C-alpha cells in the first residue's frame, strides 16, 4: 500500500511538472506569435545587432553602409560601451573618462572620417608624477617609470605576429604562452619593465597580473597597444570628446537603435533566421531577423535569453572576468600639476593588489580628476567611491570631502579562460560557432579590447554574415 502511494505521488508530481513545462513552452512559443503584437511593434531586419558598444555600433553602421537593414539592441541609455564622456555643466568642456585613445590605423581613421569627426595625436603631458602606496599614502622615493623599457617585452611579443588579429596560436602551443606571466617576466629578464607593464593593463585584475596566463596578457598588451604606447601611434578627437562618434552614430541609426532595451527570449532554429523578444521602455517588441550579430560579453548569464544549446553553453561557462570601474572627482585638495600612480611599497615589482586604484590623473578641466579602479569581484559604486575618497584623503592630507561627478562600470571586463582550456582548443571551438544557428560573434571576448582591432575583425566578418 505504501509502495502504491509513493508511486501515485511520483506520478502526480511528474504530471504536474509536465503540465507546467508544457504551459511554459506554450507561453514561450506564444511570445513569438506576430498576431500578439501591433504591427508597429514587429521589426523585420536583415541583421539584429546585440550590444551598442564600440563593436556593435561599428557593425550596425557598416552593415547599413552595405545596404542591409539592421536593428541594434543596447541595454544602456547611450551607445559607446566603455567610451564614457562627461560634459562639465559650467564650462561645457567634454572630458573622456573611459576610452582615452584609438590606434592610428586606417579602419579607425576611416570610421571617424565617415562622421566628419576631426582627430589628432593623443598625448598626456605637462604633469609631474607622484608614485605613492595608496594603502598608506606614503610616496615611493627614487621611483621612475620608463616606457622605453617595454621594448624588451615587445621583442617577445613579436614572436607571435598573429596575436593582434586572431587566436591563431602555434601548434603545439609554446610553453611560454601558457606559463604564469610572473614566470615569463623572470625567464626573459623583464623585471625592470614589470611595473610599466602593469600601468597599462587597466582592467586586467582577475587573476592578479603576475598570475595571469601569459597569452592572456599578450592579448591585452598586443601589437596595437605597444604601437600606441612605445611609438605614440594613438589618436583621439581634437575636441577631446570621444563620445561624439557615438552621438552621431545614434543620430544616424535613429529608430533602428533600441536603447535601454534587453532581449528576454529568443528562437534560434538551425536555419531560417532568428526571432527575439525585446523589452523596451515602450513595451515588448518582436524582432524577426535573418541573422544575429552578438557583441556583448559571452557569459552564461548574458546569453541565457538567447536559447543557447549545450555546445554554446559549455563554452560560455568557461569564461571568467575582471571587474573594472572609471570615474571623475573634484574637490580633492590636490595641488595642480600632479598625477598620482599607485605603487605598492612592499610588493613584487611594486605592483599593487586589488581591489584598488590604478591612478588618479588630472583632466583638461582644472580641478577635475580621472580615476580607474580594479577588483577581482563585483563592487558597488558606493563601495568604490568610499575607497577612492579614503585614498584621496591619504594623498592630499586634506579634510575636503571629494565630490564625485561621474561613474561607469566596465564590468564584466577582459573575459578569459584557463591555460588548460586554451590548450584544449577553446578558441578553435569558439570560432567554430560563427554562423551556427544564423548567429555570429564579435567583440572583446572574441579578439581584443582595442577598438582598432575590434573594428578590423568586425569589418572582415561582415561579408561572411551577409553572404
TrEMBL record:
Highest taxon in the source lineage: Eukaryota
Transmembrane region(s): none
Signal peptide: 1-18
UniProt keyword annotations, A-Z: Signal
InterPro entries: FAD/NAD-bd_sf
Gene3D superfamilies: 1.10.405.20, 3.30.70.1990, FAD/NAD(P)-binding domain
Protein's UniProt name: Amine oxidase domain-containing protein
Lineage start: Eukaryota, Fungi, Dikarya, Ascomycota, Pezizomycotina
Amino acid at each position: 500500500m505504501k509502495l502504491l502511494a509513493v508511486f501515485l505521488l511520483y506520478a502526480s508530481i511528474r504530471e504536474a511538472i509536465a503540465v507546467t513545462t508544457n504551459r511554459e513552452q506554450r507561453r514561450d512559443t506564444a511570445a513569438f506569435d506576430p498576431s500578439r503584437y501591433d504591427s508597429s511593434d514587429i521589426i523585420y531586419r536583415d541583421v539584429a545587432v546585440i550590444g551598442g558598444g564600440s563593436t556593435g555600433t561599428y557593425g550596425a553602421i557598416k552593415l547599413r553602409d552595405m545596404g542591409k537593414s539592421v536593428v541594434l539592441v543596447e541595454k544602456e541609455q547611450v551607445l559607446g560601451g566603455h567610451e564614457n564622456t562627461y560634459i562639465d555643466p559650467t564650462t561645457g568642456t567634454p572630458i573622456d573618462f573611459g576610452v582615452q585613445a584609438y590606434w592610428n590605423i586606417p579602419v579607425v581613421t576611416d570610421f571617424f572620417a565617415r562622421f566628419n569627426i576631426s582627430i589628432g595625436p593623443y598625448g598626456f603631458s605637462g604633469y609631474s608624477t607622484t608614485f605613492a602606496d595608496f594603502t598608506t599614502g606614503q610616496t615611493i622615493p627614487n621611483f621612475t617609470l620608463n616606457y622605453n623599457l617595454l621594448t624588451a617585452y615587445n621583442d617577445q611579443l613579436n614572436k607571435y605576429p598573429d596575436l593582434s588579429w586572431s587566436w591563431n596560436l602555434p601548434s603545439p602551443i609554446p610553453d611560454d604562452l601558457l606559463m604564469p606571466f610572473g614566470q615569463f617576466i623572470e625567464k626573459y629578464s623583464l623585471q625592470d619593465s614589470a611595473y610599466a607593464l602593469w600601468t597599462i593593463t587597466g582592467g586586467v585584475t582577475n587573476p592578479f597580473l603576475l598570475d595571469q596566463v601569459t597569452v592572456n596578457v599578450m592579448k591585452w598588451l598586443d601589437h596595437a597597444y605597444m604601437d600606441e604606447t612605445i611609438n605614440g601611434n594613438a589618436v583621439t578627437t581634437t575636441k577631446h570628446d570621444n563620445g561624439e562618434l557615438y552621438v552621431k552614430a545614434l543620430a544616424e541609426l535613429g529608430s533602428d537603435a533600441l536603447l535601454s532595451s534587453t532581449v528576454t527570449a529568443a528562437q534560434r532554429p538551425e536555419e531560417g533566421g532568428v526571432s527575439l523578444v525585446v523589452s523596451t521602455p515602450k513595451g515588448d517588441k518582436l524582432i524577426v531577423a535573418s541573422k544575429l550579430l552578438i557583441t556583448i560579453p559571452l557569459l552564461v548569464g548574458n546569453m541565457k535569453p538567447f536559447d543557447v544549446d549545450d555546445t554554446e553553453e559549455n563554452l560560455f561557462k568557461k569564461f571568467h572576468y575582471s571587474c573594472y570601474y572609471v570615474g571623475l572627482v573634484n574637490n580633492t585638495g590636490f595641488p595642480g600639476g600632479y598625477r598620482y600612480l599607485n605603487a605598492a611599497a612592499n610588493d613584487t615589482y611594486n605592483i599593487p593588489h586589488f581591489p584598488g586604484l590604478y591612478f588618479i590623473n588630472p583632466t583638461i578641466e582644472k580641478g577635475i580628476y580621472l580615476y580607474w579602479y580594479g577588483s577581482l569581484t563585483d563592487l558597488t559604486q558606493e563601495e568604490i567611491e568610499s575607497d577612492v575618497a579614503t585614498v584621496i584623503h591619504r594623498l592630499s592630507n586634506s579634510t575636503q570631502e571629494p565630490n564625485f561627478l561621474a561613474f561607469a562600470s566596465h564590468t564584466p571586463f577582459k573575459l578569459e579562460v584557463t591555460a588548460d582550456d586554451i590548450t584544449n582548443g577553446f578558441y578553435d571551438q569558439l570560432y567554430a560557432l560563427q554562423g551556427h544557428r544564423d548567429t555570429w560573434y564579435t567583440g572583446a571576448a572574441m579578439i581584443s579590447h582595442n577598438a582598432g582591432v575590434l573594428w578590423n575583425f568586425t569589418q572582415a566578418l561582415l561579408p561572411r554574415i551577409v553572404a
